[in-house]
Sequence to fold (442 residues):
Amino acid sequence: MRAVFSLKGELSQPLYALTAPILLLMQHLVVALATKALGQTPNYDIGFWLLPLRRLAFLADFAPWATALALVFSLAVAWALAVLSFQRASRAHGGYTLAALAIVPGVQILSVILLALLPDRPVTPTLDQKTGVNVAHILQGVFAGGAIIVLAVLISAVTFGTYGWGLFVATPFLVGVITAYLANRDSALTFKQTALLVVLAAGLGTLALVMLALEGIVCIALAAPLGALVAIAGGALGRMAALRGRNQGRPLTSIVFLPAVFFVETVVPPALPIAMHETIDIAAQPSTVWQALTSDAPIAAPPGLVAYAGLAYPIRGRVIGEGVGAERIGEFSTGLAWEQVTAWEPDRKLAFTVLIQPPIMKEISPYRHVHAPHVSGYFETSTTSFELQPLANGTTRLTARAAHMLRMDPVFYWEPMARWAIHANVTRVLQDIKQKAETAPH
Fold:
């Protein structure tokens, strides 16, 4: 079994037809078992079969540690499928494009089926590579990898408006494959040298995004850990394909399928609801807490790390009028949020619906305007409420609830960041209300 996951191996048609489906179905099995363990009923619809792991994020009471574990599991399955699929393509002397697509949810089932149908070709020995460094091929690999990143953002984000597996996983994986393949196809480089070239290509591509005003530094920094890991993994497989010395140019054709992957993601976009619940006890009467809650005084405490990350944070809120239907204006670091009051119970409850909200972040860029669609519409807050509960000794328990929607994949990667930002902002608001209420004159 060890040989199956070796980068030096070749996989026969029967063995691939046995192992690859098992890996695929492991994802569905984990989702079904997790759903039943939480006392819920699995929904075996088309989304379950095409995007199984995304379903885990939709489960109620899904713990943060489980989210992190699900991300590791999804990357491990993707890596194992990539290795097996590249070995299958090597044995079939073709199908490297299908091998690259085998890691992309939504199309991986079809890719695995087609790879399993490819007939075996006679095993040929690995060609000896020339020693030394071919600078021309290295430059070709680095510039090709950088160009793929720019092209992918133009198609996925700017044209289709999708931020998902195709952009954050498939694209860096193909950058690694193609950069490594071009750099190693004439002279063999070490894995370390190849990895450095892949990172250089990714860095060149992201620099181009900033200089072309397609992305800001903050978004690139947030996506970099996942992208770098996947790109280096792709580089290992691209290097393996080049060292085989056969089917010249075949791995390069995988790039033409990226637009199709982006289109599939527009048909099945991610939409992960995130519910927030935070509570704080305040040494003041509910009436005093209500005054602090509806005050338009600015939040005194500094925003902390949220501000350094360029994410939106609240500055103050102002209620225009009273009662249900009144207007509330939330001032954020990135702009104004227009809200409508849906519950108005003095000293008991304040709730509102967000009608128009500001961008979720302010990109750091040498340009005044950045063409990055993700700053609006990909993370939204729909409703927010504050509930006041009188406690003994004249104190008050203030509970904040909010409903959000995240529309970016992989949800296991972006959800923890979103929850952290929500928690930081809400905690800061509650602490400010506590400070205002407890220091207000009686």
Q: What stands out?
A: The two ends are 74 Å apart (CA to CA). The first strand starts at residue 272 and ends at 282. The chain is about 50% helix and 15% strand. The mean pLDDT is 84.
